[in-house]
Amino acid sequence: MWEPDPEWHPLPGGLGPATLGVWRASVGDQPVVIKRLVRPGADASVALSDPDHFAYWRREAEVLASGVVASTAGIRSGPAAVDEDPDGITITTEYVEDAANNGLFVAHALGRFTHNDLSGVRHLARGQLGARLAQSEQHGGWPTLGRTQAGAVTDRLWARRADLVRALADVRQVPAHGDPTPANMRGRDGDDVVAVDWSTVGFGPLGADLGQYALSAREALEPLLEAYALGADVDVEDARLGAYTTAAFTALTRAEWSLSRAIRYDAPIEAVFRHPAVAPHLRVMTKVAAEIDWLLSRNL
């Protein structure tokens, strides 16, 4: 049975439906990161075995083993080794030092990444936002947000989700990292970002990667969108729908998740607004207020 070496140091955020953990270790004098993926059991979610679903358990291992993102323009991976056994997969990558990348630099790099040809790569994620909203729908949507003062607005946006997802299907689908948080856009090599966590790489509507990145970036969304469009060599308006829709629905879904776990149904909802697990998500939600208004005013 596979077990981590007791001398390895666990890294935060390393657990998931198919991820046993992530550790920092050393191979000789080389610092590395080791991720352990566990083969899904018979009772696991079918999404883990669906090559098109964002949660497909083997995607990162297969993509890194193929080397396809080791030399992509804009963002790329570092060197990686992939070892499979009957119980799962172990991914070993070089540790990527934090380069404190500027948000505009990352946005431009994400735009440049859209030019890469990944058409022949197997098992890339597709339709990530729609799949995530389908999961939310199975849990009743955003009922906790509906109890807040913003409920009238969030209810209207939730009601438009199907129309907006259909509209995104008509936007040009481009290569996308899928989880471009600042923590994952970690390193730098010349004009490229050295990125980590390629588990959701695939295709998404133009602007989607930028919309996700903007939620955690220090910079405002509009200058980030302009930098992204410059890197993608497109008009800003071509990327706006993908960026705004992804940013708004991702922010509100995360806010709903945090609120629903922090509050008792019989308690005043305002009592948890300053909860440390809730407040950051509410701040991000207010950050995309203008984008939500734009989406609600748009004729589809």
Which properties best describe this structure?
single chain, 300 residues, alpha+beta, Phosphorylase Kinase, domain 1, Aminoglycoside 3'-phosphotransferase, Chain: A, domain 2, five-stranded antiparallel sheet, three-stranded mixed sheet, 10 helices, Kinase-like_dom_sf
What secondary-structure arrangement, pairings included, does this model have?
Blueprint: E1 9-10, E2 19-27, E3 30-38, H1 59-66, E4 75-76, E5 80-85, E6 88-94, H2 103-113, E7 125-126, H3 128-138, H4 151-159, H5 161-169, E8 173-176, E9 187-189, E10 192-194, E11 202-205, H6 208-216, H7 221-232, H8 236-262, H9 279-287, H10 289-297
Parallel strand pairs: 4-10, 7-11
Antiparallel strand pairs: 1-2, 2-3, 3-6, 5-6, 8-11, 9-10
Q: What does this 3D model show about the protein?
A:
With 300 residues, this protein is of the alpha+beta class. The protein has two domains: 86 residues, 2-Layer Sandwich (Phosphorylase Kinase, domain 1), CATH 3.30.200; 195 residues, Aminoglycoside 3'-phosphotransferase, Chain: A, domain 2 (Alpha-Beta Complex). It contains ten helices and eleven strands. A five-stranded antiparallel sheet has the order 1-2-3-6-5, with helices on one face. A three-stranded mixed sheet has the order 4-10-9. The chain has a three-stranded mixed sheet with strand order 7-11-8. Helix 2 packs antiparallel against helix 6. It is globular, with a radius of gyration of 19 Å.
